[in-house]
Specification:
flat, mainly alpha
Length: 62
């Protein structure tokens, strides 16, 4: 839901945007003790760095 407002603001201002999300918990009763936020952050960082690296390489080849 947080992304919806961000995307709407970017759309209204015609600013390109991208949202990368990761999963920290399964759909179940709300039990924060079972959430794995550090793993979710690690996965998000890995994907973000891969995207940055891929785009950097593409930019260098053009």
């Amino acid at each position: 839901m947080e992304g919806a407002a961000f995307f709407y603001a970017c759309l209204m201002e015609r600013i390109p945007c991208l949202q990368i999300r990761t999963i920290s918990n399964y759909i179940e009763d709300r039990n924060k003790g079972r959430w794995n936020v550090p793993l979710a952050i690690d996965n998000l960082n890995t994907i973000a760095l891969n995207i940055i690296h891929h785009n950097y390489l593409a930019l260098m080849q053009s």
